[in-house]
Task: structure prediction
Amino acid sequence: MNIILLAPPAAGKGTQAELLESKYHLNHISTGELLRKSASREDDFGKKMRDLLESGELVSDEIIFEVLNKHLETCENQNLLLDGFPRNIYQAERLEEMLKEKNDKLDFVFFLDVPKETLKRRITGRRMCQKCGSAYNVNIDSLKPKVDSICDKCQGTLYQRNDDNEESFEIRYQEYLDKTSALITYYQDKQILYRIQSDKSKEEVFQELCGVIEKGMKK
Ligand code: AMP
Result:
């Protein structure tokens, strides 16, 4: 089973990916998380990545495929749950070729639909775990960590992403409109797009996602 989570910034891709990963034993791959790992390197490449990510603009396709292919080589589980990839039509076409080469295909593309004003409110409260990448939100009661600044799952330290500020958000949202949102029609035409209204609790969104998957698996 291969799934894509498609959404504007801070729509909850990472949160839903964690829940789906454990329920369906998928291989959760977040290209943003792979890039943030590269950005923590103390060399010129790390510094370049930090600047790029902070700017809010999309990273070049060349860098994305380099990082992604390198990561895929290390993965045994080939049931992919792609979070934040593809982000444009070119990446989507390349992904399709990659899957075809393995006689594989995409099963579900979930579009997590959240209004811009809600995203803006969420972005400043988001905190990430330095160790396991789990996401929390200090502005939303149900998403707060049990202990301040500590991850519930692995006790790692929580931090605020450099691009989780209003200025970077505006650029990231514009990038989403200009480049990523075209994927909605692209996958609609292929009849694998499922629009999930996602300005609800994480449990409600998760239930809807599972409903679609269970129905699809019975076909
Ligand atoms: P995310 O964690 O998905 O919000 O991604 C954080 C940042 O990483 C984005 O704002 C982009 O700069 C970059 N990024 C992540 N995935 C991609 C991708 N597939 N293509 C281009 N840039 C990406």
Residues 39 and 200 are 32 Å apart (CA to CA). The pocket of adenosine monophosphate is lined by residues 9, 30-32, 35, 53, 56-59, 64, 84-87, 91, 163, 172 (CB under 6 Å).
